[in-house]
Amino acid sequence: MTSLPSKCAACLEPWCAQHGCQMLIPSHPAYVPPAASLVYAPPSFFANTVEVLKQFELSYLASPYSKYPTGIDAAFEDVSEIAGRLLKAGVHTYSPIAHSHPISKYGRINPLSHDIWLPLDMKIAVACDALVVAKMATWDISYGIGEEIKTFKSKGLPVFYLDPATLTVSEVAP
After folding, report:
1. What residue ranges define each of the domains in the chain, with the CATH number in brackets?
2. For residues 95 and 85, is the Cβ–Cβ distance under 8 A?
3. What angle in degrees, to the nearest 10, is found between the helix axes of 72-88 and 96-106?
4. DSSP states of 77-121 as a string?
5. Chain segment 91-102, per-residue pLDDT in tens
6. Percent of the chain with pLDDT strictly greater than 90
7. Fewer Cβ within 10 Å of end Cβ, the chain: N or C?
8. CB-side exposure of 142: number of CA atoms within 13 Å?
């Protein structure tokens, strides 16, 4: 256990994904103000748990859709359930599939058009400060997820893989 530093030594920001200091923000349950004499658990304490995602203001939940083995309706249902579990765990999450699937269905918009959905998704992605990739079936062959990963990595933002069954996470190297 170590005392909580107030800023990243590399960039002087309260939290820094680029330098990997993983400072905790005040809303995080393990946060201890710098002036306090208490101690905190280092980031490794939260490694591989959903707790590490709580330090972000808004996480973008990437998931497969068009190539999902049981169809796009099942992809919508499955990622909505994952997003709900993340929200219950205190992770502020935006899911383009959970949020856009009903719009495509009831607005009679082609749900598979990358020309329609990717520009919208990328506009929302800029408001997010972490990418969480749900490792659902076919996630690794998804064109959209590949584009989302490229976008977040190009901005130096953290990318995490999420096991949908256990909600364990692992950070992707920059």
Report:
1. 52-171 (3.40.50.10400)
2. no
3. 140
4. HHHHHHHHHHHHTT--EE-HHHHHHHHHHHTT--TT-HHHHHHHH
5. 999 999 999 999
6. 58
7. N
8. 29
